[in-house]
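Following up on my earlier thread - several people asked me to post the actual chain instead of describing it. Fair enough. Here it is, all 234 residues.
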Amino acid sequence: MAAQMTNAHRRFLQVLMSNGITEGSEARKLHQHCCETDKVYYAHDKLDDFIGTINSHLQPLFMQIRKGISEDDGRAHYAVVNLAETEVTKMASDYTEIELELFRKTMDLIILSENGFASSTDILNLADQLKTKKMKKKEAEQVLKVFVEDKWLSEKNGEYTLHTRCIIEMEQYILSNYQDVARKCNICHSLAIQSQVCESCGIGMHLPCVRKYFRGQTEPRCPKCNEFWSCDTP
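Reply from S.P.:
Thanks for posting it. Predicted structure:
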C-alpha cells in the first residue's frame, strides 16, 4: 500500500513541475520547507523516500520524478518526466514543427559528435536544409536562444550541448533512437553525452565521474577492463 500523499508532497511536486528542473541542494531545501510548513515528519536524509511516495501516486498518471546528474559539475538534479511520451513530441505543444525539426537535427549533431557538443555555426548551417521549410539564420538563432531559456540546450562560448533537463526527460528516447552511439556512464549509470571512452572496451564515463573515480590513483585504469585509461583525466 503506497504511503499517503500529504500537502507537503503536493507542494513539492508543484514547485518541481513549475521549475522544469531543480538542483539537488534546492530540492533538499524545498523538502524541508514543505515538511515544516505542513507540520509533517522531516528527516534530511529521507528525500528519496519522500520522492518515492510522490512517484507511487504519479505512477497511474504515467509520470515520475527522476534524478539526473549534471554533466558539467556532477551535481544531482530532479525533474518531473512524462513516461507516456518519451518522444521529442512531448515538446510539440510548445514549439512549431519547424522548430522541432531544428531541435532534432541539433540533437543529432550533439549526440553523434565526439565530445557531446555542436557549434553554433554547424547548427545554423542546418537552418536552410530543413524539410519542413527553410529557416533564416537570424530566426534559427532566436529559436536556439529559446531552447536554452527553456532548458533543453546549454550554450557555452558558441558551443551547444543537451541541458541536464533534456537528458533526464529524453533518456529513453535517446537510448532507443541512437542505439549505436548512446551509452550510459559506467559509474553513475545515467546517460552520458559528454564523456570519455575507454579505447579498449568502449565504456564511457562522465567527466565529473572520471575526476571522482581516478582521484588519488597513481595510474588511471579502466574500471571495467583494467586497461590503462588513455584519455587526459580532468
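DSSP finds eight helices and ten strands in the chain. That should answer part of your original question.
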